[in-house]
Design a protein that fits this description.
Blueprint (H helix, E strand, L loop, with lengths): L1 H18 L10 E2 L1 H7 E3 L9 H13 L1 E10 L5 E10 L6 H9 L2 E3 L8 E10 L10
Parallel strand pairs: 1-6
Antiparallel strand pairs: 2-5, 3-4, 3-6
Helix pairs in contact: 3-4
Amino acid sequence: MLESLRRLAPVVALLALGFSSARAEPDLPHVDRDEFRRLWVPAVERMPPATPLAMEASLLIREHDQIWVDHEFVVDAEGKPSGYRFHGIEPSEVDPRPFEALVMAFRYRPVDGVAPTPVHFRGRDHFHWPRPARPGRD
């Protein structure tokens, strides 16, 4: 019985991710990645130390070369994300939990000249390592 429960744990965790909901705040503008980048930039100096789970994302990216994650979250006026909701991942066999941990560890600051604007982001993010420049290409 205990072994059966252990085997179900990853499935239960994925279901919990899929059914968690982003904070319902109807007055927040819903933005895609392009609009998000016009409002917010990562504030590396404000980010907490990465958790072991968040650090697993880089291992998964190295293993799979590139990963696409469909998700949503809210960023408040202080640049802190909350209400993460997972929608899908490619390749489908990749565990999405490290990417949730990574996204939730980020902190943001407004783009220069832009007022802090709380938003509800919904989109598809591409996680990959930068490719080295090929000889003969600029």
